[in-house]
Amino acid sequence: MKKPAKTDANGYRKFGMRDKLAYAAGDLGCNMSFSLKNTVQTFWLVYMAMETGLLSILLLIVQIWDAINDPMIGSMIDADRRKYKMGKFKTYILIGAIGLLVGGAAVFLPFPNASVVIKAILFIVGYIIWDAFYTIANVPYGSMLSLVTENAGERAQLSTWRSIGSMIGNILPGMLLPALIWKKEFNADGTPMINPETGVQVETLLGNRVFIAALIMGILGFVCFLFMIKTITIRVDENSVKTNDSEKFNVFKAFGNFMKNRPAVGATVTAMGMFLGMNAAATAVTIMFATYFGMAKLSGVVQMVGFIPMFFFMPFIKKIVNKFGKKEASVAGTIVSLVGGAIMLIFPLIPNKSASLVVYLIGLVLFGLGMGVYTCVSWALMADAIDYSEWKFGKREEGTVYSLHSFFRKLAQGVGPSVVLAVMGLLGYVSDLGTGGQSASTTYNMCWLAAGLYMFSAVVQFIGLGLIYNLDKKTMEKMNAELAERRAAAAADAPAAVAEVSGN
Length: 504
What we know:
The protein has about 500 residues and is an all-alpha fold. It has 17 helices and 2 strands. A two-stranded antiparallel sheet has the order 1-2.
């Protein structure tokens, strides 16, 4: 006989591991699509042979759209008060998941012989379709955390499990995809095809496989979304909360308020710096491994080396934060990342490629270790920034802070790669030559570009956390104590005000 599920006071199944696994599966589904973003530039640069300057401009256009896309679609979802059989949020997530079945592949249509105009149209239309469906799924997914439980501790657990789903969703495709889409070339007699300039075996990108891989990832993501929709329990009225990042706001007024919030600015600068390292360097690193090391198939595995150290901090993050404070621990991490970036600047100087690769990996591991603490507490830093606004200015502005933080994060995700593509062109990369025809000086320049981007990323993160973000452990204790006093006083005054009104 099946044992009946335990229920809470409202008759819902009690919060538990089912909810945590389901919520993790949701971000795993999101990242089956999101993790393809690092392949977009490489696909259009190498397989579609789009000129670096044009691709840079197109990428900037679609990423600016991406940045404003969230609040637009979020507002639409928030304004929808219709009753749905499975609930509003689950319904929108399902619509987005269905769209992502093919949406992720829409930007990888393999037509390398098309005209430049057709290629540009395919890129923009495909990206917009993909991004729209991704936002339709992702925005309500993020908002749903507050609907699964009202308990602060249980919400923190959901946030942690979301991070786990996100990391798995990024690491697995990041490691496996390059091995599947790159092919080493051989001559008719079976000998390796060597680039005479660099002495490296030529590797080509299999564009048709990228398209098929995107379709498969869409299917896997859809399965993850279905599991979440069927497994997770909504315990809070959906129309009692606003969709994440969906509050309508005047962007100029909001920007002015945001700039007064020093912790929010510091945390946002740090996030932008992180994405400069993670996203902007991705294409340069892939090209570097294809042309300088002749190891494009392993580029994903190598890049993931920089992410794996972040897992080390997850079991200990609460103890680290309680002992040292979020700012202090994160700043210490940025110093480690700076050391990693400095080591990366050494590897292009080493003539032996095997030795230089080892030095590069050491620098990458240290860079990843340095980002470990910040990655675990990044959203908590933003929550503290919202408290800071209440403490300093007397009002909370969740919508403004989160909307603009998300806006600038997405701008960094787009502007960074766009600028890097333009710089690659200036450094000698010629799209028409593919990875097998680049000059020795160009491949060497890619090494300096990749190393410089990681170093720049570490510097920006240090500036954001060390010099701008001002909520250290001592200030946090003071802020929390004063806010608690104000809220207690407000709660005590409320009954008196009600009694006075009733007496009148």
